[in-house]
């Protein structure tokens, strides 16, 4: 199993997600967040945002943030193109 699969398995064991095979391709597993998982996510969000701001956003110059955005946009565009394949 990949590391991601192990993480999702642990989340499922804690009741934060459910897993099922994809309807159109049984080789793919679909994970869906549960109500309990969503509550944990919402509770963790403020601390996560504060930490990212402290260690990433506040550390970079405005120019570096703009470059990071450009890089992230390129990665997301590539991921979006991959969905169509």
Automatic annotation (TrEMBL):
GO molecular function ontology, one term from the record: DNA-binding transcription factor activity
UniProt protein name: MarR family transcriptional regulator
GO terms of biological process kind: response to stress
Pfam (any one): MarR
Domain HTH marR-type: 1-77
InterPro entries xref list: HTH_MarR-typ, MarR/SlyA-like, WH-like_DNA-bd_sf, WH_DNA-bd_sf
Coiled coil residues, start to end: none
SUPFAM superfamilies on file: Winged helix' DNA-binding domain (SSF46785)
The species this protein was found in: Kribbella capetownensis
